[in-house]
Amino acid sequence: MNREFCLRIGYDAVVIADKVICVAPAESGPARRSAQEAKREGRLVDATAGRRARSNIHMEGSLLVLSALTPETLKLRLNGEATPADADLEPTGENGDE
Hints:
21% of the residues lie in helices and 28% in strands. The chain has helices spanning 29-41, 71-78; strands at 6-10, 13-16, 20-25, 44-46, 55-59, 64-67. The protein is globular.
């Protein structure tokens, strides 16, 4: 069975990493206009949990996903590198190692 790599984009949200086209900062004018256009067209997924969007994740199929994580953090996760926030996800051995 082919298992696809899920990229954690924050607040219990994930995307399929193979479907990511690019990750861009969300602060620029063009990025904000792109998000507004995607929202109008029903192509926007807001995964910020009410926080400020820091990244626009462009997906296959013209979807745009907003994330509260920085593009740098998402880049590290896409490359399989651990980030400081990822340390909390490792099993501690106390409550059910798998």
